[in-house]
Amino acid sequence: QVQLVESGGGLVQAGGSLRLSCAASGSISGVNTMGWYRQAPGKQRELVATVSTGGRTNYADSVKGRFTISRDNAKKTVYLQMNSLKPEDTAVYYCTQRLAVVGSTSLYDYWGQGTQVTVSS
């Protein structure tokens, strides 16, 4: 069974920083794309950033220049460094990893439980 465990959320003042982590565990044979999404109250879940196996990154326009996504393949962990946080960044942040389990070559998307990020003005 695969689990994604997130950490690093919390309450921060506007202009501050937080670093989110998301580690996968279980019988995993390979990990493809990793990413972060967020969902604010009353809004749809939206893409924040993704990073490919080759390290190519993609960001939502609203976070470009402020957030940095990175990955550690050996640890099966994806990170999101968030700087210059704004009140509009307040949301539940979800990590996702597209991976294959041992004994299968099929890739599936797995999701973390979500971590709350609150930015006060």
Task: Describe this entry's structure for a reader.
The N and C termini lie far apart (41 Å). The strands form two sheets. Strands 2, 4, 5, 6, 9, 10 and 11 form a seven-stranded mixed β-sheet that branches. Strands 1-3-8-7 form a four-stranded antiparallel β-sheet, with no helix packed on it. The protein is built from no helices and eleven strands. It has strands at residues 3-7, 10-13, 18-25, 28-39, 46-51, 57-59, 67-72, 77-82, 91-101, 108-111, 115-120. With 121 residues, it is mainly β. A hairpin with a 5-residue loop joins strand 5 and strand 6. 0% of the residues lie in helices and 59% in strands.
Radius of gyration: 14 Å
Sequence stretches where pLDDT stays below 50 over 5 or more residues: none
Given the C-alpha coordinates, what overall shape results? elongated
Helix/sheet category: mainly beta
**N/C terminus separation:** 41 Å
Q: How would a textbook summarize the main sheet?
A: 7 strands, mixed
Q: Mean pLDDT across all residues, rounded?
A: 97
Count of DSSP-assigned helices: 0
Fraction of residues in β-strands: over 45%
Helix-residue proportion: under 10%
The H/E string reads: EEEEEEEEEEE
Counted beta strands: 11
